[in-house]
Amino acid sequence: MTAALNAVAAALFEQHRDLLARATRACATREYFSPFPETPDRYPDSAAALARGHATFQALLGKPFELDQPGEAGRLGDEVSPYTAAPLGINYPRSDVDTLFRAAHAALPAWAEAGPDARVGVCLEIVQALYAELPVLLHAVMHTAGQSYAMSYAGSGTNALDRGIEAIVYAHQAMSAVAPSALWERRFGSATIRLQKNYRLVPRGVAVCFTCATFPTWNAYPAMLASLATGNAVIVKPHPTGILPMALSVRAARRVLADAGFDPNLVTLAVDSASEPLGKRLVNHPQTAIVDFTGSARFGAWVEQNAYPALCYTETSGVNTVILESVRELEPVARSLATTMHLFSAQMCTSPQNIYIPRGGIDVDGRRASVDEVCEALAAAYRGVTADPKRAASILAAIQSPSTLELVGSMREAGARLGSIVVDSAPYAHPDYPSARTASSVLLRVKPDARELYCEERFGPIGFVIETDDADAALAAATSDVRAAGGITAFAYSTRERFLAAAESAYAVAGAQLTCNLTGAMPLNFAASYSDYHVTGLNPAGNATLTDASFVAARFRIAQSRRPVA
Amino acid sequence: MTAALNAVAAALFEQHRDLLARATRACATREYFSPFPETPDRYPDSAAALARGHATFQALLGKPFELDQPGEAGRLGDEVSPYTAAPLGINYPRSDVDTLFRAAHAALPAWAEAGPDARVGVCLEIVQALYAELPVLLHAVMHTAGQSYAMSYAGSGTNALDRGIEAIVYAHQAMSAVAPSALWERRFGSATIRLQKNYRLVPRGVAVCFTCATFPTWNAYPAMLASLATGNAVIVKPHPTGILPMALSVRAARRVLADAGFDPNLVTLAVDSASEPLGKRLVNHPQTAIVDFTGSARFGAWVEQNAYPALCYTETSGVNTVILESVRELEPVARSLATTMHLFSAQMCTSPQNIYIPRGGIDVDGRRASVDEVCEALAAAYRGVTADPKRAASILAAIQSPSTLELVGSMREAGARLGSIVVDSAPYAHPDYPSARTASSVLLRVKPDARELYCEERFGPIGFVIETDDADAALAAATSDVRAAGGITAFAYSTRERFLAAAESAYAVAGAQLTCNLTGAMPLNFAASYSDYHVTGLNPAGNATLTDASFVAARFRIAQSRRPVA
Q1: Contact predicate B291/B313, CB 8 Å
Q2: Which of A61, A212, A437, B446 is the most exposed place for a label (fewest CB within 10 A)?
Q3: What's the pTM value of the predicted model, to 2 decimals?
Q4: ipTM associated with this complex
């Protein structure tokens, strides 16, 4: 590394030192933190920036996306907006995979040599660059994933960047824990041996980061930044229906790297299409050292089984469970559940899906509410969410994939056959986008033996009420389903401390993160960076946690050299 | 956990708090540390303790080994002493594997519930109990592995316990980094949400720990203690020719656990025989959550490929390389190499095997020494090591397996055919054990194209001198062989700083830990706990490092629960 390069990287580290310290403190205390305001109106020079962002997005449509990376061998891209039903008309360079790996490898030595602080400084600068890109990026997320404007801004913007910073914090801590050198001295018989020992951090090599269609950045940023900070290069493989958010992100990262004097090929984009998928080839590539995967449980399981000898970090999906045992008031619970089960049309890996209710009903402040009554309360709350199209638009947003509508259709048929439909699904009229692909959530009521329906993630606006023998059976069934089918979040409502304690223990072993008795303004499934651990790795919903030490500690290795000194 | 149990475990943690603090400091500074004197004469009440230990060992011979663990379904054991050639005559309970898993699972909840400090206290007490067992254990290692008395005491005793403490330190740090709870507060719109969040550490489950024939405890103690400290149970699967050291260790650990009020079935022994191996069944057992493996590269590769969904930590083997470029004096280098290549008859995963020398010879303080001259110096040094049987016994010790002698035979034949024999192998007469299986090291001189011979670990007293075009070619060939066949240690001799810097960079990428220009009293391959990282995970010699954060961080997971507070 040249002295000049040293100076640039060192300056970036100094520039972001205070942010790093505050984020590090937040990861330790798990208290609330974010350097970024969560609403667009508080973005710097908000009105102008947001207008410019929208104009920039519009200018991208229908054109080749400029991404000056090596190995271009044609172009592709057939994204369609879930809001307008129109193709975005953007095409991206389809780069030869071997060329991308070669370019990444060529970029590695100087990046490794730069050392932890320099890389952390550059990574935090990438976060800033992505924040600067957010006014454009939010439209890219809206028109590929189908998220609402607000969620695109916060969930795929500021919250995702927070998860990225969090990953950088953990990477920085893990690297800082390794002493760079030591003087070691010991007697061997009558002789004293003194050795100067030097320890260097060695990156694994090239990481491949798969991003998903509905939430492209939230898992991608922490994965990319964890790999980069620890000295690796990253090839980003976006879902073919949601390339633009990652194309913008990759381009921003490349610019920061180049500006800091590093080879931009530390971050590249590998696009593919549904008809010619690249995924397996990338996982099995002999130069793939790390795989980060977010996506379907089926391909995720294949990745986990086939990534060796690459390291593999996955977040797939599962059945997120709710247990209703007793409540003080039914209506706020029903409203929170209805809202969360509609949020982004339940196209989130944290969306609740299965509500387990004792068949004898639940205690509501001393009186018994039957399952019928609970279902009625839920149905009323469901209707409340979708009554006003403007409010529906802000909550439900759009359906990313046509196949989700098909699944809703087949599930409501099967649900009607094996049980009953509590609330049916229907499109709602989006006030701004008349062609938007929309669907309200269907809620199906089934018996426990309909496991073929509910004991599997049904991705999209599909929920189940499952009647169990009693509350203990509800907890047993829910946690057993989580162990079998995976589960990231879980929700329990009970006024009995003993039941909540049992739920805490059972869900801890099953490995779903539990939220108890929550109602009100916060979406039930909101996962806060720096505070909420996302995915335990204890069930089939994924093996990696955002963010714990194990998410970063193996992404680099330690090589040492020792020699005698006088 | 009962209050009484709490008190016992808390007292153990307090008792060992100072040791933990000192060991933690050593891991951070990488300076010399050990709580244990390294020579038997400094063992507490040495003479009496060692005599008692020997008598206890003698009393074990020819008898059933008492290990009160569940599921006994017969007994087995056919260990033979490499020193006496006589069977030890000890048999061990062959426990039904499913019973061991069930018993381990039954023991887990209370162990998980006890919490990090309590477990760390108990684990450090296990270290003390193993130290108390050392006067017996050293004979068990001698008469199964074939190590010398001194190595059995230090290498398999105090050094192994240090590696165990080191693993406990890292486990303690990783667990302590997770806040047990937090109060989190944030605004959502006009509402303020306050959540009490609790985080609990959840163990993976049951770990299986494979131990190897020649160095049973050195890798096993850190693996066992890392798993235990993080809340898991451990089933130890010793090599069938070296059960006794681990049977004693398991029994000692079980006693400590029981005395501290925990279920001793947190640590059990699963013995097998060469004719009815258990290894694959244990790796593939649906309840196996973690596999630690030390042993052959071949089975190690199978374990790495098949352990999923269990976590897998391996240390197998490789070719450890030496590069001679230039030296100030030849004789001390030859002596250090000869001694180290004879140490425990090179039955160590860190023993050097391949010496790469430029065919034009090397610079010795300004004059050129030909390859012939270097080989003669090595041959003289080899003879020096074995000239005195008493000294030979202390260095070479005994050959663990008859197959090693066969390998020496086939290698010297092949070496003579494809090159020449620099020094031949021969048995030496052990002064105390006339029946000891012994062999001095064979040194073969070959051309680079004899890769079929040297580019593979040849486990035992077998070394190669490989003539390369020049010094750069030596470095290129050696590091390329390490990348292909694995390598844990590496050694370079050069008086040119630029060459050493190139070697440091090349070996860092190849992933072998480099020692430069070392001569004198310390065995070249000595790896110091708290200071030397053992195995990088960057080449096929294993994927786990003793000890870095990644060795412990994934052995537990984090589950959380959150609920609103006023």
Answers
A1: yes
A2: A61
A3: 0.97
A4: 0.97
